[in-house]
Amino acid sequence: MERDSQSDPLVVEPRSFSFNIEHLKAYSNISLVLADIAMLVIAFVVGYFAREYLPILARPSEQPSLWSYLPTIVLQTVTIILMFYFSQLYHLKRAFSRIDQMRIVVGVVTLGTLLASGIQEFFFQNTALEASYPRSLLMYVWFFSLLFTGAGREIHRRFWATLRSRGIVRDNLLIVGEGRVAHDITNKIRNSPALGYNIVGIVSAVEKEGDMLGFPFIGSYDDIPRLIDEHMVEQVIVALSDPRRGEFVELINLCQRGSVDIKVYPDLFSYMAGDLNVDDLGGTPLLTVRDIALRGWKLSLKRALDLLGASFGLILLSPFMLLTALLIRLESRGSAFYWQWRMGQDERPFPMIKFRSMRSDAESAGQTWTVENDPRVTRIGRLMRKNNWDEIPQLINVILGHMSLVGPRPERPMYVQQFRSQIPGYMDRLREKSGMTGLAQVEGLRGDTSIADRTRFDLMYVENWSLWLDIKIIIRTIWQWISRSSPNAY
Q1: Alpha-carbon span 254 to 220, nearest angstrom
Q2: Among 8, 358, 435, 476, which one has the highest count of C-beta atoms within 10 angstroms of its own C-beta?
Q3: Taking a C-beta distance cutoff of 8 angstroms, is the pair 398, 310 a contact?
């Protein structure tokens, strides 16, 4: 019996490409450039009037007309746009970190504003283009340039994400592979429509029937060139769990058709979490695949961040912590705080302190894993767990040196003994101090979630540590706390 392609979800029809949609894709980067230009011009105009009407800095006794600053506006806008281009801010990945982008924007706008001011002073002086550009005006323009450019880029991101989510601007994608890696990537794309991918099907080593997560197997490796042409494929992801070198080379050769973009999941190098570096040994190149990030002066830098952040947090939050302790005592009998032994760095146990969020007799029947809608959790405890407020007293652990602000989350010794024999590489996460928050936590891997996935993110953090990575994780944690959007917090 023939399948009805209109009623069978496993049949993927080649998507027709219209002239408008193809050009709409091309306009993505162009529209970002135009948005940046508009925001920079508006920022200068707002800064000009703010200097006169906002008495934060010295108010000018006499301010030139706005039109006299037209050459300055053009110069500064062109300078910053060119610096954006060379900083690859117009070559953004589909899934990019807005925190990383904003860090680069701050640096580029700051440097571009100063550079434009210097160029004007050097080239415009004693010419018809000369205009007074005092430091107070520069500061206003710089501030609003940061504010407006960041807002403009966020609006642009949301606009294009909405188009992709609604299927208006999407790339046809072919996934090569059928194992765990291919399954995870397919699931990620299926749950992230804003990435803008339209999965046309899955290719396996040998032709097979069926589907993966609702997407059909449509051929074998030998069919790849034909499938790319038939389905007008623009992106190919090679997602093999345990590939052979020759297999990789063969697949890439099969995928090289026209302007198809080819991406390879680097599971072959899964044991290498950090960047690859080439060292030189007397003229012999050596590839560094593992270089411990946290050592030497970096340990001191991380400890300084911990002490500064924890001290500031305790001072700022102490009134709210006192109020929380009173509410806990009013709701149920027992201590406001809860001490629990956890396994820390180098397998050294330490007493971790939290606000008590469960009944005082919660572990009378033994220690068990906390699950969603756990009946042992009190009313105030449920509110605290939703935004991780119950973990704020761990700032004391950070001051004492038991923990860090950021790092792998500590587990109870009983669970460590269980996981060490079940999860490959689990004990490697104990090479560094445990953290109040971590990369796994901000990615939603907390509570009753996969220990193997948590371990993978923890090892990525350990191998790729940087001060900026810690700051990013702290910013994301604070935002999830404020917005009460922490995934799997219960």
Answers
A1: 11
A2: 435
A3: yes
Q: What pLDDT, on a 0 to 100 scale, did the predictor assign at position 3?
A: 44
Structure tokens at 254: 């099969």
**Strand 434-437 and strand 403-406: pairing?**
parallel
pLDDT tens track for 234-283 = 888 888 877 666 677 788 888 877 668 888 876 544 444 444 555 555 55
Residue 6's pLDDT is 44
DSSP code for 123:
I
Residue closest to 108 by CA, chosen among 62, 153, 51, 59: 153
Q: Which residues contact 186 (CB under 8 A, 6 or more apart)?
A: 175, 199, 202, 212, 213, 215
Do 423 and 327 reside in the same domain of the chain?
yes
Structure-model confidence comparison of residues 164 and 34, the more confident one: 34
In-domain check, residue 1 = no
**Could you tell me the pTM of the whole model?**
0.64
Please report the pLDDT score of residue 350 as a whole number: 92
Residue 444 has pLDDT above 60, yes or no: yes
Q: Which residues contact 32 (CB under 8 A, 6 or more apart)?
A: 90, 153, 156
Spatial separation of the C-alpha atoms in residues 178 and 284, rounded to whole Å: 39
Do 152 and 109 fall into the same domain?
Answer: yes
Matching residue, tokens 């509110």: 383
Tell me which residue range forms the domain holding 220: 171-269
Higher pLDDT, 170 or 40: 40
Q: Name the amino acid, one letter, at 12.
A: V
3-state secondary structure of 62: coil
Q: Are 118 and 249 in a shared domain?
A: no
Q: What is the pairing mode between strands 277-281 and 284-288?
A: antiparallel
Residue 183's pLDDT band, with cuts at 50, 70 and 90, is confident
31 and 154 in a common domain? yes
| Chain-centre distance for alpha carbon 314 | 27
pLDDT value, residue 10: 43
> Residue 199 is part of a domain; what is its CATH number?
3.40.50.720
Comparing CA positions, the residue from 178, 308, 167 lying closest to residue 239 is 178
* Residue 303 and residue 450 in one domain: yes
